[in-house]
Amino acid sequence: MVETRRRSARIADAKIELLDHHTAPESADSDSNSSALSDIDESDFDSDVRPTKRQKIAGGQASRAVRKTRSTTVKTVTTRTKVSATTTTSTSTSITTTLAATPIAKPKATAASIQALVTQIFDCPFPQGNEPPCHPPHPHPLTYHNPLLLSSPTARKHRDALLTWFDSVSSSRQMPWRKPWIDTTPFVSSSSSATCPQDLKEAVAQRAYEVLLSETMLQQTRVSTVIAYYNKWLAALPTMQSLAAAQPEEVLSLWKGLGYYSRATRLHALAQLVCPPPEEGGYDGLLPQTVDKLVQLPGIGRYTAGAVASIVYGCAEPMVDGNVIRVLTRQLGIRGDVKSKEVLEVVWEAAKRLVEAVAWDGTDVTEDGREGKEPPVSDRPGTWGQGLMELGATVCLPGPAKPKCGQCPVKDTCRAYQEGVKIATQKGLVPEGKVTARKRVVDIEDSCTLCPLPEAEESDKQESDTGTKKRKQGEVSAFFDKFKTSGTRRKKDAAEDSDPAEPSSAAMEVITSHCCKYPYTKPKTKKLREEECLVVAIRRPSDGRYLIHKRPAKGLLAGMWELPSHTLPADLKWNDGSAAMKKDKVRMVLKDVLKEVGVSSWREKEAELGTVPWTFSHFKLAMHVWAVDLVKRDEVGSEGGEGNAKMKRWATIEEIEGENMGTGMKKCWELVKESRGR
Ligand code: SF4
Q1: Atom number in ligand 1 closest to CA 405
Q2: What ipTM, to 2 d.p.?
Q3: pLDDT tens digits, residue range 575-594?
Q4: What are the residue boundaries of the HhH-GPD domain, all occurrences included (predicted)?
């Protein structure tokens, strides 16, 4: 009997070890653990699965490898624990080491596995909102990431707090695109937009155009920069129809300086698709209302579609940009790689459920009455979405600025904040209170597979030194307790939520530093592709003009002007080449380029000016810049035929300055001007 209890203790200890990777393995203590551990039924373990390969690796590393498995593999691992346990007569340390000997690679995320993850987090059958703060790397169940803004007993109060806060700050940054919502109820509920009043239709179409324009400009660009561009654009192209009729050059010139020029060309293409009447496949100048239709248009992704559907049409659709990702990963306490599909899908799902909850909050419809129905349209979804973004842009700041958690209207539902309070408490900066008084819950089957193992933290070491055994027992007890006490705890949580105490500035420093660990991005291991190209600034002697070239209408830097360039073969390393080889290459480029403008014979003086490195989103480019002066005056004069002049022409310095050029090419041009003493 004693031996059976000891074995149970070792098995249970090893189960906990799977989740607690910051705790050094230690000997089982059957006396101290027996009361809790005797409740664990070994029949939970499946003995049919056996390890096939064993590699001896250190306990910590192994724990890490095992921890990376999905919840479906946790069962397999516990089976191995049993196999080990029945053959091991030593301490739990040896069990853990043997257990850890079979690292299992994390399976690739599939639609089904992501759906399972979402179900585990959001559709938990027992009441939510009761998992205590337990910042990763501590063990926590997947349900820990169910937003407290949805599941806390006072969730509605906190959602309202964010809306109220946004109402109070929405005009402070004076964004011209923020306007009162036009009630689209008759419009959205109508089966055909043709039956809607014309003035409402025009007002909604205009609003949709403005929201689309502002959201497109705001991608990767600061609000303060966008405001001037937005006003200038609307003055020149006030409607979707005027954009559709504009020349590509005008569109690009209005965008000049904003960068990412493909946004402008796609916006232009979109207007040309949307403006024709429905019988010609268009939308009569009015953007469609649904996300499904919106994402089929050029330049509209999931985020922009959500913004148009919610801000313009009042539909309960999420919009998740970088700011919202930061706010929600902190609110949900998700420490997984924010670039991973799983984490992004969980964030989108949380955003979707939140905006739906906010839309329903504005009605008297009970939970039961919502089943199978779409939330009604109103200004609430758009206000909520913009509120989340505003919070991310002005309060929930990334490091090193640090979030202003003291000003946050939803800090009571923020996992990262709660975790920070817990760390500050451990450091003695916050008095023991509501946060630390709760027990940690560990549900092995539902253990989180999203959060990785971050670096060791001081607080964890302290805790490891002082309370490992006690904690393990508490974890297992809490696992069983939660089913019995969740109702009581929810009431207690509701009362505790009203605690007004504010942490000291020293404590807040610790808290906000912790919050800055979210969102987590796994360091990139993939190296960007590297390319080299030759950029040749050709000046003709007759009038000192330079030859410039227009890029194709599609692809990278579409429709932009540049100095003639030539991509070098991948196996040619320019800086390792001889002077003769470089000159030959320049002459070869010159020959091809000048032929296109009708110059067949020339002499030149050339000079290498330097290299401009430039990084695009998907590759790095080294641009080797050369200046070439053509010297045989008589033979240099042709500017090419009419058709060619649109793609290549001789331009003055002032004209070049006025053309749309990519930022990297502009730097090359600066180098040329510098070499000429301009
Ligand atoms: S409490 Fe702090 S970290 Fe959490 S959402 Fe608010 S500002 Fe962001």
Answers
A1: 2
A2: 1.00
A3: 888 989 999 999 888 888 88
A4: 217-394
